[in-house]
Amino acid sequence: MTPFDRPPVGMNLARTAKVVAQAFDAALVEAGGTLPVWLTLLSVKSKELANQRELAGMIGIQGATLTHHLNAMEAQGLLTRRRDPENRRVHQVALTDAGEALFEKLRTAALAFDKRLRTGIADERLAEFAVVLAALRANAGG
């Protein structure tokens, strides 16, 4: 048996990640959003991030691209931005009622997609899979 009798782990993981990402994107689009919009709404809702640079990092985009997304979302009435009175260089971002409503629609779509992905896989196997993914991330970083 040679190492290439089955696809290398990295190739298999990359293919799977692409298929899953495309399907997740499609589920979000069907619900009225996109992955960057969902990640932005989720981040603002969770209040975990202190500034736009951190938000951009979490979403995996450049600051200028985030500004574009925030401008569009603000124009759509999904969020508001205002300068922090204690630090004028920092924007405080908050969801509007429309942003809250879209958050709930996308949250429902994300949970349904997660349930779909888990179909037929025992919780124990998913827990083991999470451990394997963490090891792969650690190995890739090393």
Describe this structure in words.
With 142 residues, this protein is mainly α. It has one domain (9-114): Arc Repressor Mutant, subunit A (Orthogonal Bundle), CATH 1.10.10. Helices cover 68% and strands 11% of the residues. The chain has 6 helices and 2 strands. The chain has a two-stranded antiparallel sheet. A hairpin with a 2-residue loop joins strand 1 and strand 2. The protein is globular. It starts with 8 loop residues before the first helix and ends with a helix. The model has no long low-confidence stretch (mean pLDDT 88).
Could you list some keywords that capture this structure?
mainly alpha, 11% strand, single chain, Arc Repressor Mutant, subunit A, 6 helices, 2 strands, 142 residues, two-stranded antiparallel ribbon
CATH class: Mainly Alpha
Q: Could you tell me the CATH topology label.
A: Arc Repressor Mutant, subunit A
Radius of gyration: 19 Å
Which percent bin holds the helix content?
Answer: 55-70%
Q: Architecture in CATH? A: Orthogonal Bundle
Mean pLDDT: 88
Characterize the main sheet. Answer: 2 strands, antiparallel
Low-confidence stretches are none
Percent strand equals: 5-15%
| Total beta strand runs | 2
Number of helices: 6
* Shape verdict: globular
The H-and-E topology, N to C, reads as HHHHEEHH
Structural class by SSE content:
mainly alpha
What is the spatial order of strands in the main beta sheet?
Answer: 1-2
N- to C-terminal distance = 28 Å
Number of domains: 1
Q: How would you name the CATH homologous superfamily?
A: Winged helix-like DNA-binding domain superfamily/Winged helix DNA-binding domain
